[in-house]
């Protein structure tokens, strides 16, 4: 039963990533083709609840593969990710979005 939950959680993570990939690709494309480039790029720190190196690496890769965001560094203790985003309106909202989607889905896969 645990194996089935892990497989299902992995499929959900893949579908979540594909959804975010498509949505962020269109968002970045729309920002680029507008006559006036109206963006506010920035770097922010995000605390993570993930513990293992594998979980943190997976989260970092998913962030990097999503257009408009890039993981720049991970703190030595692995608790903080430093992320660059092409357009930051609200750091708390962006952090909550990452934690509520990718981080939660990763925990479902690894802690099933």
Description:
The protein is built from three helices and three strands, in the order αβαββα. It is an alpha+beta fold and 112 residues long. The chain has one domain. Strands 1-3-2 form a three-stranded antiparallel β-sheet, with helices on one face. α1 packs antiparallel against α3 (91-110) and α2 (53-65) packs across α3. It is globular, with a radius of gyration of 15 Å.
Which features does this protein show?
112 residues; alpha+beta; 3-stranded antiparallel sheet; globular
Number of helices: 3
- Read across the widest sheet, the strand sequence of neighbours is 1-3-2
Please tell me the overall pLDDT.
Answer: 94
Largest sheet: 3 strands, antiparallel
Poorly predicted regions are: none
Q: Which band does the percent of strand residues land in? A: 15-25%
Total strands = 3
Question: What is the C-alpha radius of gyration, as a whole number of Å?
Answer: 15 Å
How many structural domains in the coordinates? Answer: 1
Distance between the termini: 10 Å
Shape: globular
Helix share, percent: 55-70%
Order of SSEs, N→C? HEHEEH
- Structural class, by secondary structure, is alpha+beta
In short:
By secondary structure, this protein is of the alpha+beta class. Helix content is 58%, strand content 16%.
């Amino acid at each position: 039963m645990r194996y089935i939950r892990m497989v299902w959680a992995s499929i959900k993570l893949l579908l979540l990533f594909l959804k975010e990939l498509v949505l962020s690709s269109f968002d970045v494309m729309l920002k680029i083709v507008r006559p006036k480039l109206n963006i506010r790029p920035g770097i922010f720190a995000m605390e993570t609840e993930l513990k293992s190196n594998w979980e943190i690496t997976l989260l970092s890769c998913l962030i990097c593969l999503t257009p408009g965001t890039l993981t720049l560094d991970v703190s030595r203790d692995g608790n903080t990710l430093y992320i660059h985003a092409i357009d930051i309106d609200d750091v708390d909202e962006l952090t909550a979005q990452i934690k509520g989607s990718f981080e939660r889905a990763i925990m479902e896969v690894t802690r099933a």
